[in-house]
């Protein structure tokens, strides 16, 4: 990763809790929260064997930068998180009871209707309470599924640089993300049936929902960076409220095809049963079709093509329509 | 996956909340918790395109079965979760402030010492409160990091089949898991520095800590299944409290070497930057050494070899030493 890129990530996303330049004493801290019992016998041998050197280009979670390269890197990195989370959820059966209000007697009820919440709704609400307290939803690239119920902060708030038009704050299509997830995604990634792993399934659901929400709402940054690159092209369409015209500008089919191919390849590679001895993994079409995978690459690619990218573009469109307000 | 295996997973791990055979109305449930707004335009096109068919052999999370094949499948599946979680954490810098008591003003203090908790301790405690309420730690293959502080259940308890010797319940080496994580693992998987992603880093830490804890404590099932396969070999050693003798029986170097090679391959494959067009991924030694990866495969393999497997064997030893009590 370039210094610039890392920097972008840095600036960005104190997201669930940056505190700027408070003094830090890492060594002390680590020791304090560590070994209260002896470490394994191999400790002496292991220590010092590997230095902390990393190859590759890790990308911070979506930065609040509008640099097009950084936006692109962040989107690509989010694909990995989404596919990892899909594979994690797919190890369990569908477990419909998790999604059925009243099937599992959670202590959560809708104030207006009196209906008992489903287990996944209960755990998602609890999770948002916990993450909300530590500032998750004060970050402009995080969006709650129950924004009306967020708790008070237990940490002092962070000021984020305002890179987006103020209208961005009001855009939250998590109802649609939820619909996408439960109607389209879940039935395609899990085998039908009930294996009793209700809590584990719900926790995987929540990780995946949060990853999808972040990817989809990142459309705000995509849109702003596209707008900044050529305001004169967008301005007349925005003034005319020409949704089709804007959507047309936002759509670059060759790029979308590349994303879908890359996602297919990722699902194929990450979903493989890796052995201790193996030579190569082939990404040729016919080999992918033959390969055993924990998820079906073509289906994950299709979900991206038919749902995730369109919802991302919907966020872009909603953002741009009010860009001149 | 064989029917038997899926079955094992099913029996097992209602772990954070199986409820047995309560009546379920999945369709109703799904609709209730879904779309409150229209889905994307592509809905009509997408719907019905992909049937819910899965290839491959998804393995449920560690079953409570003692069948050796199922134990092995569960251990292999846990490797994937651990490596995914390592890759997720490695996208952020080290962020030492997260681990330093007082560096981030979380509202959590040690009752005895008066010390403020570190951010990661605070969030881990909060997470265990939430997961504890929904029965996570009533499952015999889950182990809390703060078992003395678990909350009351908000759901009726589940009775698990007792496959292990009662002594198993008292074995919890999460203090050592924590030490392994903060002293050995974190410094090797993250670049030094501070990118401000404190909350995100802590959430990744917790996912990874939980995955490591599950893998390491699964030694209880490994030990019981080995014991069941040849009690006559173990009994005299157990009676003599012959730790070295037991450890010798538990250690099959050829198997351990295979695990380490497989983990190396997984870290290599899952850590790759996958492109939209690529032919094959090579797992030959010299290619792995050249490849750019989000984590260093040899390092992850070494962590497995030097730390994760030894701690797992320590659990096995502790379990077996009291197998005849």
Strand content of chain A: under 5%
Provide the low-confidence segments of chain A as ranges. Answer: 1-62
The chain pair with the largest interface is: A-B, 146 and 148 residues
Structural class of chain A: mainly alpha
The total of helices of chain A stands at: 13
Compute the CA-based radius of gyration of chain A. 22 Å
Oligomeric state of the chains?
homodimer
The chain-level mean pLDDT of chain A equals 81
Given the C-alpha coordinates, what overall shape of chain A results? globular
Number of strands of chain A: 1
Biggest sheet of chain A, open or closed, and with what strands and sense?
none
Write the layout of secondary structure elements.
2 copies of one chain form a homodimer.
Chain A: H1 3-12, H2 26-32, H3 43-46, H4 68-90, H5 119-133, H6 174-189, H7 198-217, H8 219-229, H9 231-239, H10 243-250, H11 253-270, E1 280-282, H12 285-290, H13 297-321
Describe it.
2 copies of one chain form a homodimer. By secondary structure, chain A is an all-alpha fold. The first copy, chain A, contains 13 helices and 1 strand. Chain A has helices at residues 3-12, 26-32, 43-46, 68-90, 119-133, 174-189, 198-217, 219-229, 231-239, 243-250, 253-270, 285-290, 297-321, and one strand at residues 280-282. In chain A, helix 5 (119-133) crosses helix 7 (198-217), helix 8 (219-229) packs across helix 13 and helix 10 packs across helix 13. The longest helix of chain A has 25 residues, at 297-321. The first copy, chain A, is globular. The interface between A and B is large, with 146 and 148 residues. Strand 1 (280-282) of chain A pairs antiparallel with strand 1 of chain B, so a sheet runs across the interface.
């Amino acid at each position: 990763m370039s210094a610039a890129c890392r920097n972008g990530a840095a600036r960005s996303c104190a997201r669930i809790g940056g505190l700027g330049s408070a003094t830090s004493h890492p060594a002390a801290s680590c020791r304090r929260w560590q070994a209260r019992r002896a470490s394994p016998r191999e400790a002496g041998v292991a220590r010092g064997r590997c230095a902390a050197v990393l190859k590759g280009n890790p990308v911070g979670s979506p930065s609040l930068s509008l640099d097009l390269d950084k936006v692109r890197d962040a989107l690509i990195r989010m694909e990995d998180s989404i596919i990892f989370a899909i594979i994690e959820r797919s190890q369990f059966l569908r477990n419909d009871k998790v999604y059925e209000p009243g099937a599992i007697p959670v202590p959560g009820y809708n104030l207006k209707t009196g209906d008992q919440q489903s287990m996944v709704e209960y755990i998602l609400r609890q999770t948002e309470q916990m993450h909300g307290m530590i500032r998750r939803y004060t970050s402009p690239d995080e969006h709650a599924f129950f924004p009306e119920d967020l708790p008070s902060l237990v940490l002092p708030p962070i000021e984020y640089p305002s890179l987006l038009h103020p209208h961005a704050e009001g855009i939250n299509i998590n109802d649609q993300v939820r619909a996408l997830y439960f109607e389209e995604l879940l039935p395609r990634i899990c085998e039908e049936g009930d294996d009793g792993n209700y809590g584990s399934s719900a926790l995987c659901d929540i990780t995946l929902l949060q990853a999808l929400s972040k990817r989809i709402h990142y459309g705000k940054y995509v849109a702003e960076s596209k707008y900044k690159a050529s305001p004169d092209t967008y301005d007349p369409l925005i003034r005319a409220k020409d949704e089709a015209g804007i959507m047309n500008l936002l759509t670059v089919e060759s790029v979308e095809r590349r994303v879908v191919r890359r996602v297919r390849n990722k699902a194929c590679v990450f979903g493989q049963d890796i052995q201790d001895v193996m030579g190569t993994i082939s990404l040729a079409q016919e080999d992918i079709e033959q390969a055993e995978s924990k998820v079906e690459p073509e289906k994950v690619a299709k979900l991206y093509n038919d749902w995730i990218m369109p919802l991302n573009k919907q966020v872009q469109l909603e953002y741009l329509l009010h860009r001149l307000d």
